[in-house]
Design a protein that fits this description.
Oligomer: single chain
CATH class of the largest domain: Mainly Beta
CATH architecture of the largest domain: Sandwich
CATH topology of the largest domain: Jelly Rolls
Length: about 290
């Protein structure tokens, strides 16, 4: 009997939204620099042409030079300085967008992704129609063009995230949220945690969602996500609490929503994980 399909992304993207802003369309010639700025990622689409992609020496996990010769997506989920070197050829065509993820570095998807994804367009099933609409919107000025182009870029990003969940090894994704969502059994438990973080989640309840015994679930979860189910749940609740604190929500209300018996119980989680109270953490964020 086939397993029911589940939506592995919506519960994440509803709580931690992503916004795209188109800032370039057309040819790129010579040297184009893209500086790292807090909270900002990039999604570049090379439709035609070629480019040499460069990174600084301090980014040892990335190639210093990479030659791109076929239509390709280049996705930087986190701030990372890079530059393009393009030959002055007719016919090159790019669209580029800045990305802003809710929570910035605290966003669970941002934390789980590699620093760079380089993906030929032909590899992503169903991407052609979205890109056709995106390029159509950037080719001539029409009412609402910028807004529609931004939304289409967000559609492309969601399709890219789908591909990453389905092909984590090919993308170089390390053990964590993405590899967990790629596992059919663990994904059922993870989606349940994401959708109902305030429930009293015992190990037995999580294992039941995955259709596994407690011992098998605990061992498999740790092997795939590199942390225990209880640790992941505490991290997820902490991430949600941080997001809601930034929205101005009171600690007591947040504690109630996330399944803590009191505001002091949530404060203990902050102290254990971050070494400061919720108020001290929020004051520190305001000072950044």
């Amino acid at each position: 009997m086939s397993q029911p399909t589940i939506d592995r992304l919506s519960s994440l993207l509803e709580r931690f939204k992503v916004r795209a802003r188109l800032f370039h369309q057309g040819p790129l010639c010579g040297i184009s620099r893209f500086p790292a700025e807090p909270g900002r990622g990039f999604l570049h689409v090379m439709r035609r042409g070629e480019l040499e992609l460069r990174h600084g020496a301090k980014h040892s996990e990335l190639p210093r030079r990479l030659l791109i010769t076929e239509p390709t997506l280049l996705f930087y989920p986190r701030p990372l300085a890079h530059q393009f070197r393009n030959p002055p050829e007719d016919g090159s065509d790019f669209v580029c967008a800045e990305l802003e993820f809710d929570g910035a570095a605290l966003n669970p998807l941002v934390r789980a992704l590699p620093p760079l994804v380089v993906l030929p367009l032909a590899r992503v099933e169903g991407l052609g129609l979205s890109l056709q609409l995106l390029f159509s919107e950037t080719e001539r000025l029409r009412c609402g063009q910028r807004l529609l182009a931004d939304r289409l870029f967000e559609v492309v990003l969601i399709q890219l995230l789908r591909w990453l969940i389905d092909h984590p090894a090919e993308a170089g994704v390390q053990p964590g949220l993405i590899t967990g969502l790629a596992d059919p059994r663990l994904a059922r438990a993870l989606v349940a945690l994401h959708e109902a973080p305030g429930e009293a989640w015992s190990l037995a309840a999580m294992a039941e969602r995955a259709g596994m015994s407690r011992s098998a679930f605990a061992a498999h979860f740790k092997a795939v996500l590199a942390q225990t189910p209880a640790h992941y749940l505490a991290d997820w609740r902490l991430t949600l609490a941080q997001s809601r604190l930034r929205q101005g929500r009171p600690v007591k209300q947040i504690a109630d929503e996330l399944g803590y018996a009191s505001a002091s119980a949530l404060s203990r989680l902050f102290s254990q994980r971050l070494g400061r109270s919720p108020r001290q953490w929020l004051d520190g964020q305001a000072a950044v």
